[in-house]
Structure formats: structure tokens, C-alpha cells
Amino acid sequence: MPETIGFVGLGLMGRPMARNLARAGHRLRICSRSRRSAEAAAVEGAKVCDTPAEAAEGASFIITMVGDVPDLQQVLWGKDGVLKSIASGSVLLQMSTVAPGQVRQAAEECARRGAELLDAPVTGGRIGAEEGRLTVMVGGDAGTLDRARPVLAPLARTIIHVGGIGAATVVKLAINVIQAGMVELLGEALVLARRSGVRPEPLLSVLEASAGGSPLLKLKGAALAAADYEPQFALKWMDKDLRLAGEEAKATGAALPVATAVAAFYSAARSRGHGEEDYAAVVRLIEDLNDVKIKG
């Protein structure tokens, strides 16, 4: 059954997600920081709105897909934020990767207005968003998730209920800690091989056939061998997620020594101007340290 959906945030991930919802027959009310971005994403009859509050008006579901904690703060609690007009009985699908505490606060605000929130960050990158095969991890009420499944279906290949509000955001941060570390170590291994006179291609072939192989390492290994840093997931967002994971670790008393070291590399790569590239560009720092290029 088609739903009226307010969609706020039309960046690298949000734009293809909104397009897939429109193509599935849902009625969209879209809003982005830049009206030009919203108009460019206005496909299949979506209504372009000037503010998040306007996008939320009359919507059964509202999706937020923004970049960072301050962005969500403005989109939800700002002068023209979603919480100004969210209707009783509607569902806010908070799909950005932000701080777990901020998501819990947003859920409390929704409840005060008679609405519900699902904590629903995604993984799968730009290609997954374009092809409608994201993985959505969901925290919140299971019954509310059942109600939201038809809305999530055009976006996701896999939907996993992981617990209460905030749990999905913690899972997303934990997943990105793993993926960030895997890619950074893959770069170190490729640099070691190159310094020893071994080309990346045979190493990657053996890796793929070994117990250490994975879809992520296959994808990023091919990108590193080709020095292809077109963003599937921008390094600035991985840097942000590692920062948020570090803040959650500090708040809970978790010691993450390796993740802390990996986060420092991503922060350094961002400070050197690689923030808009794919997060695999962290390997450029390893190349610089060793005065060698993986490709070549």
C-alpha cells in the first residue's frame, strides 16, 4: 500500500534511497539542505519542501538520512525541524549514523508527540543504496518494525532487528570499526608486498581464496590496486563514525586500543584533504610513510 513519506537528506545515500521509494509507488515529500539537491532528486512526482517540518506534514513515515550529529539536531529540533510537525501515530525512521544517546533522546521526543521512532541505520554504501540492497539494522519496537517493513523493502535486501532504541546505532558503529580496520590493514599488507617486489594482484587472488577473504576485502582490494577512490562511502563519514565509536567507548568504559590507532589514521587522512574520497583513501597515508604506491 503506498504511503506518504517525508524524506530529509538527499546526499550520496539519501538521493538513491528516495528514488527507490518513489519508484515503488510511495508519495514523497523531500527536503535537503540545498534546494537544488532536492529539485535534482525530485523524481516520480516527489514534492520538494523548503523545510524538514514541511516534509513531515501529513506523512505516515518520516526518514532522516543526514551526515552527522549537528545535522540531525538541526533537522529534528531546529526552528523548522521535523518535531515541529510530526503527527501522532506517524513513524520516524532515523537512518543516519549519529550518537546512540541522540537517537534515544529523539525517541523520547517522538513519544511525547504520540509518534514512534525506529533506530534504523544502514550499511551497503552508494551501490547498495542505488540497487536497493542495503542492510538495515533496526532498534525499537518489533511491532513498529513490522508496520515499517513495506517502506524499508524498496531500500533493503536485509532487515535485522537488533534490540531497543540505540542498539542499532551501536551495531552500526561497531561494524564500521571492523570495516575501517580491515581496509587500513589491507593497505598495509599491500604496501608490504609492494616493498618486497610482489604485485597486488596475486596477493589479492590468494586472499580471496583464503579463510581471510571477504566481499569487503575483494571490493576494496580491487579499488586499491587500481588507485580508485571514487566514494562509495566517504572517508569523512568513516572518520566521523570512528569518532562516535570512541565517544561511546569512553562513555561505557570500553577500551579499544587498536580501533583508537586506526581512528587516528582516518583523522589524519581527512586532515590531509582526502575526506571526500572513499574511505579506502586512508591507505594513501601508508603509501606516503613507505614512499611506495600500490598501483604501479
What's a concise summary of this model?
The chain has 296 residues and is an alpha/beta fold. The protein has 13 helices and nine strands.
Structure characterization notes:
The protein is of the alpha/beta class. The protein folds into 2 domains: 4-164, Rossmann fold (3-Layer(aba) Sandwich), CATH 3.40.50.720; 170-290, N-(1-d-carboxylethyl)-l-norvaline Dehydrogenase, domain 2. The chain has helices at residues 14-23, 35-40, 52-56, 69-77, 100-112, 125-131, 142-152, 167-195, 200-208, 215-225, 235-252, 257-274, 283-290, and strands at 4-8, 27-31, 47-48, 61-64, 91-94, 116-119, 122-123, 134-139, 156-163. The strands form 2 sheets. Strands 3-2-1-4-5-6 form a 6-stranded parallel sheet, with helices on both faces. Strands 7-8-9 form a 3-stranded mixed sheet. Helix 5 links the parallel strand 5 (91-94) and strand 6 (116-119). The longest helix is centred in the middle third of the chain and has 29 residues, at 167-195. The protein is elongated, with a radius of gyration of 20 Å.
What is the terminal separation in angstroms?
54 Å
Helix/strand/pairing category: alpha/beta
**CATH level 4 superfamily of the largest domain:** NAD(P)-binding Rossmann-like Domain
**What is the average of the pLDDT values?**
95
Give me the CATH architecture of the largest domain, please: 3-Layer(aba) Sandwich
Which CATH class of the largest domain is shown?
Alpha Beta
Please estimate the helix content: 40-55%
Q: What's the alpha carbon Rg, rounded to whole Å?
A: 20 Å
In DSSP terms (H or I, runs of 4 or more residues), the helix count works out at 13
Q: Name the strands of the widest sheet in spatial order.
A: 3-2-1-4-5-6
Please state roughly what percent of the residues sit in beta strands, choosing from under 5%, 5-15%, 15-25%, 25-35%, 35-45% or over 45%.
Answer: 5-15%
- CATH fold-level topology of the largest domain: Rossmann fold
Largest sheet properties? 6 strands, parallel
- Tell me the number of strands: 9
How many domains? The number is 2
Topology order in helix (H) and strand (E) letters? EHEHEHEHEHEEHEHEHHHHHH
Overall, the morphology is: elongated
